[in-house]
Amino acid sequence: MNIKFFHTDDSSYFFLDRLLIVPFGYNYVDEKPSPVEFSECSLTGVFLKTNKNCAVIDLDNQSGLRLIDLPNLFPKKVEPITHPDFLISRQNPKYISAKKYYDYLIDFYIKKIN
Q1: How high is the pLDDT of residue 113?
Q2: Rounded CA separation 56/54 (Å)
Q3: Are strands 12-17 and 2-7 parallel, antiparallel or unpaired?
Q4: What are phi and psi of 82, to 5 degrees?
Q5: Strands (E), the chain
Q6: Quick one: residue 49, left, alpha or beta (phi over 0 = left, psi -120 to 50 = alpha)?
Q7: Model's pTM, two decimal places?
Q8: Could you tell me if 26 and 44 are in contact, meaning their C-beta atoms sit under 8 angstroms apart?
Q9: Which residues pair with 21 in a beta bridge?
Q10: Separation of alpha carbons 88 and 74, rounded Å
Q11: What's the confidence (pLDDT) of residue 8?
Q12: CB 54 within 8 A of CB 36
């Protein structure tokens, strides 16, 4: 990951190249302040903070957001995809229905989060 710095008259910005932070449930046009802000610095890294749920995608890792990652994006606890309700067959617990899980997440988001 590369970090690029930009300076203006009264501010400094740093750009994290190849790292994408996606806050969910946030209106970028109308809501202020920014959903992610600088928190503190240590010898091991820079800490960012937010009160929104975020997905962090490292483009160098070459992996996308997976269904198993989705529960971490909700502000309230949701069942993991490994929950028995999402099994296609109780006789073979290896087969999980992504469609059942996706429908559950949509229903949860609409009903619980409003």
Answers
A1: 63
A2: 6
A3: antiparallel
A4: -80, 0
A5: 2-7, 12-17, 19-23, 37-41, 46-49, 54-58
A6: beta
A7: 0.48
A8: no
A9: 56
A10: 24
A11: 86
A12: yes
Residue 88, both tokens: 């296609």
Q: Name the token pair of 109.
A: 């988001």
Length of the chain measured in residues: 114
Cβ-contact 33, 18 below 8 angstroms = no
- The pLDDT, as a whole number, for residue 99 is 82
Tokens at 64, concatenated: 């996308």
The predicted-structure confidence for 6-48, as pLDDT tens digits, reads as follows 888 888 888 888 888 877 767 766 777 777 888 888 888 888 8
Structure tokens at 81: 């995809």
* Residue whose pair of structure tokens reads 């790292």 in the numeric block: 19
Q: Report whether 45 contacts 38 (CB < 8 A).
A: no
Say which DSSP state 84 is in.
Answer: G
Mean pLDDT of 48-54: 81
